[in-house]
Amino acid sequence: MTVADLETEAQRRRTFAIISHPDAGKTTLTEKFLLYGGALTSGAGAVRAKGTGRSTTSDWMEIEQQRGISISSTVLQFPYRDCVLNLLDTPGHRDFSEDTYRVLAATDAAVMVLDGSKGIENQTRKLFEVCRDREIPIVTFINKWDRPSRDPLGLLDEIEEQLILEPVPITWPVGDGDRFRGLIDRRGGSFLRFTRTARGATEAPEELVEADRAAQEEGDLWTEARDGVELLDSVGRGFDSKLFESGELSPVFFGSALTNFGVRLLLDAMVDLVPSPTPRHDKAGEPRALADPFSAIVFKVQANTDRNHRDRMAFMRVCSGRFERGMVVTHGPTGKPFATKYAQSVTGRDRETVEEAYPGDVVGLVNANEFRVGDAVYVDSPVRWPDMPAFAPSHFRVARTLDTSKTKQFRRGISQLDEEGVVQVLREPEVGDQAPILAAVGPLQFEVATHRLNNEFGAPVELNPCSWTTARITDEPSALKLRRMSGVTVANRADGELLALFESPYWLARLEADQPELTLTRLVAEG
Ligand code: G4P
User: Which domains does the chain have, with CATH numbers?
Assistant: First the structure.
């Protein structure tokens, strides 16, 4: 394959994730993307199991089913126009924002879905902050416009004020709720009128309507929408791809995932506005050209995806070169060769063999047991990616096995959860493995840990609450002093970092002020 061929393949890729508050319509939109990508023949229902109200693509754990949340990340690949779209699933709950951060490390953009009657909600904000941290371009989709919605200008203000993100509407709604007629495309001023189909099971028929006819046929709804567009034109800045790519500006699309209104325009934007993969920078800041030998970054390690496959999968995003199944790659941190015989893509419970992949694509490697999140994988010329930061935990539990005859299983389970990044595992030197401290960004992570220790490793556990609330990274000289104080505990993390755990944030603040010589480094994304 020539360099030009490889670059052409890379240019056809768009790799992105959807972030949203639960219920804003992420699953429905995903389903409609597949419908418009021609990857869904049966319409609604293939992503969601009708009647259960939950996604089947990523429901692989009972706990997900019990709680109706999505924890695991999967990847959907589908063609659209002359492009290949890779949609990476992110956990919907903010307790898993660390996982989201890791997935976003593998994407080139995100679609932020808002409910048009609610605007920005808690978890939208939290997940958005994760995107901002990574400077990821964000496309905004204001969904559920087929329901009575808020004033669109008010929603734009909210985005601007609460997220400090400049919203630039590309489409503008004509009507809302039952009277949602269609969208004005501000780029050419055309009016696209849609027709509903039953539950949006097929694409919504579209009709391009001239302004005069629109005014005649849509009356007040048209006038109101035209006024809105004129106001935007008079005050607003236009779309600027540089500001979009640096995460400062977001193109905004209105629509309804349920009725398919505006879905095609949004998908077109993914192709027309979202950047294709660009050279990734290594730890030293050097770009790895797309046409360089194969390299990839591991962004997710997942075990036990279902009862029939009790193995471990490492998901990697291709950064450069061409991946071919069977090729022997080098695992960066260990320098060991790894034969990629079992290369797969995972859509929910379905696994398919991946024969080849290009920059932007995701490949799951079975039994890549030594692979960890953030690791580099390559052929020929070695590469090391920037470290993947661990999030600041603010919830802590001490884990103990309830059945001492299961100590071995308990230890094995704990270290596996640590390796997968389900929770951070900390050990106090004098207590060690018997009662490790589990640290999490959100308490739901503990539920996942308990469930998996019980069901997967056969090691029933109890997690005891503890009084720490805040963690800082410290070093040995400071740890010596900190260990003599009360209200603070110093523990080791598996990656070699020393963490100081504090009971009182106020006391910590005083300590930082009074003893600035102590090393107390903040962790990322502290809430
Ligand atoms: P999520 O993945 O972000 O959690 O949201 P999901 O797509 O599951 O959507 C949550 C609910 O909102 C679903 O209703 C879904 O049908 C509805 N919904 C999504 N997009 C739209 C839209 O554009 N317009 C309207 N009116 N509703 C929308 P549900 O009652 O929970 O499930 P279902 O019984 O309708 O499937």
Answer: 17-72+89-272 (3.40.50.300), 280-378 (3.40.50.300), 391-526 (3.30.70.3280)
